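Q: Please design a sequence for this.
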């Protein structure tokens, strides 16, 4: 059976093509990219919005390569890399990035019910590897084309219908950041009355973690720059600690149960100093730098648990949909950009002068 694609779908679309690892010049806005067609078990989505994330920057500049040891905002100084993907497999170019996708299903492939056409959906960023290898994922905008386009194809099982009054832009801020945050919280079993310290709390993942940790009943301390403390407090943080303040002096030794970290960098040892004995630490990023100094005595004498969190249970996205539909979370979108302003969006993203998410919006189709 052929793919069920409405006749109104054009043959070409607007999209941002990543032509290789490197600087902003590797981002090419095109108006003649081929519209993909859904294969067996797949759906075609007309993109309503696609959030900007650290992983878009990291992939573009090749930051995931083991030879890179600097922070993610040091793009201009990165060496040339051949393998800058986080899967360990070199990317094929051109690639359409965009880890966040919200939109409407407009076509289905063989094996997918045509009744799904018309659904408004969000798409899992970290998708289950079809090979079934444990703790292995494939990623939107990395191993497959993502949402920086008017249309995208993905597996039907990785798309989740959402019924709510949110805009497409608001929903587009959810998949990558909120699934990452929820996955981290779940991996370290954050629960009621846990004292949780969240680094990078003004960013997409950090601000999501603040809301999701409060949803679980935790006491949240957020690390942010001074000018962002009010905004993060409004998100639900019980306390905001200005970035750069000595943590032990500010919070006290062994003052928190859990650390949710996306920063890493040179001040990383302080995070273990404020963890209580038996405390839990989880990381899904290192925007301040991937190389840290670990005193093994701190690790074993305090009986700490250190966890890396990339792989996500399939249930994570379903749980997030439930939170959305029950009104338990609400995203914070700082700004939107038309798709052809991808360079400005990524430049603004790297500046970090905002709280919440930046979202790309594709142009309307011809004739609309």
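A: Design:
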């Amino acid at each position: 059976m052929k793919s069920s694609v409405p006749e109104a779908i054009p043959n070409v679309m607007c999209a941002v093509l990543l032509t290789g690892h490197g600087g902003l010049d590797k981002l090419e806005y095109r108006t003649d990219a081929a519209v993909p067609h859904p294969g067996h078990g797949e759906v075609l989505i007309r993109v309503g919005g696609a959030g900007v994330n650290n992983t878009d920057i990291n992939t573009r500049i090749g930051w995931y390569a083991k030879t890179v040891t600097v922070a993610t905002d040091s793009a201009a100084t990165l060496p040339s890399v051949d393998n800058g993907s986080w899967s360990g497999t070199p990317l094929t170019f051109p690639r359409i990035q965009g880890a966040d996708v919200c939109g409407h299903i407009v076509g289905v492939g063989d094996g997918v019910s045509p009744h799904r056409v018309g659904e408004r959906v969000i798409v899992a960023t970290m998708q289950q590897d079809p090979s079934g290898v444990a703790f292995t994922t494939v990623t939107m905008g990395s191993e497959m084309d993502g949402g920086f386009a008017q249309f995208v194809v993905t597996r039907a099982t990785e798309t989740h219908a959402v019924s709510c009054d949110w805009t497409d832009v608001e929903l587009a801020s959810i998949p990558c950041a909120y699934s990452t945050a929820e996955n981290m919280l779940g991996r370290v079993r954050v629960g009621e009355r846990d004292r949780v310290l969240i680094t990078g709390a003004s960013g997409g993942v950090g601000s999501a973690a603040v809301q999701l940790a409060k949803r679980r009943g935790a006491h949240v301390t957020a690390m942010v720059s001074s000018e962002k403390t009010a905004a993060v407090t409004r998100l639900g943080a019980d306390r905001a600690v200005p970035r750069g303040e000595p943590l032990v002096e500010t919070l006290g030794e062994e003052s928190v149960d859990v650390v949710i970290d996306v920063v890493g960098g040179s001040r990383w040892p302080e995070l273990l100093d404020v963890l209580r004995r038996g405390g839990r630490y989880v990381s899904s990023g290192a925007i301040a730098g991937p190389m840290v100094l670990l005193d093994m005595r701190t690790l074993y004498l305090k009986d700490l648990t250190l966890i890396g969190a990339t792989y996500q249970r399939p249930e994570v996205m379903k749980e997030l949909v439930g939170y959305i539909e029950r009104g338990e979370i609400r995203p914070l979108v700082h700004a939107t950009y038309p798709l052809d302003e991808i360079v400005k969006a990524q430049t603004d993203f790297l500046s970090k002068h905002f709280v919440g998410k930046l979202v790309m919006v594709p142009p309307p189709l011809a004739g609309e």
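Q: Thanks. Anything notable?
A: The first helix runs from residue 54 to 61. Residues 338 and 363 are 7 Å apart (CA to CA).
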